[in-house]
Design goal:
By secondary structure, the protein is of the alpha/beta class. The chain contains four helices and four strands. The protein has one domain: GMP Synthetase, Chain A, domain 3, CATH 3.30.300. Helix 2 runs antiparallel to helix 3. The model has no long low-confidence stretch (mean pLDDT 87).
């Protein structure tokens, strides 16, 4: 599967948060970055971050990828995303969105 053909799912609550925060363009750029920079990408799901009530405006771009953990000198896309995000977005936008890479296929 090529990066341009991976499925992208934006959960309803995540879409509401994106609209409420007025960050549609920024999310499109972040999803595009994920497509281009996560090796072996199998799918993208944008979800609301739900670990604490105080984070009711935060989002996670979950990137499902083929990573068996055996590559030497493993490079973590999350670190590259953080560097890119800090260089390209206002910190108030950047603090709202994270990328988490999860090995395997994207759940239905």
């Amino acid at each position: 599967m090529t990066p341009t053909t991976v499925p992208v799912v934006i959960e309803e609550e995540a879409a509401r948060r994106i609209a409420r925060l007025h960050i549609q363009r920024e999310m499109e750029q972040m999803i595009a970055w994920t497509r281009e920079n996560v090796p072996g990408l199998r799918g993208i799901r944008v979800v609301p971050l739900r670990d604490r009530p105080s984070r009711d405006d935060q989002l996670v771009i979950k990137a499902y990828w083929d990573d068996d953990g055996t590559r030497p000198h493993r490079k973590f896309p999350e670190w590259d995303f953080l560097d890119w995000k800090l260089a390209n977005f206002h910190f108030l936008v950047g603090q709202k969105v994270r990328v988490w890479c999860e090995p395997g296929a994207m759940p239905e």
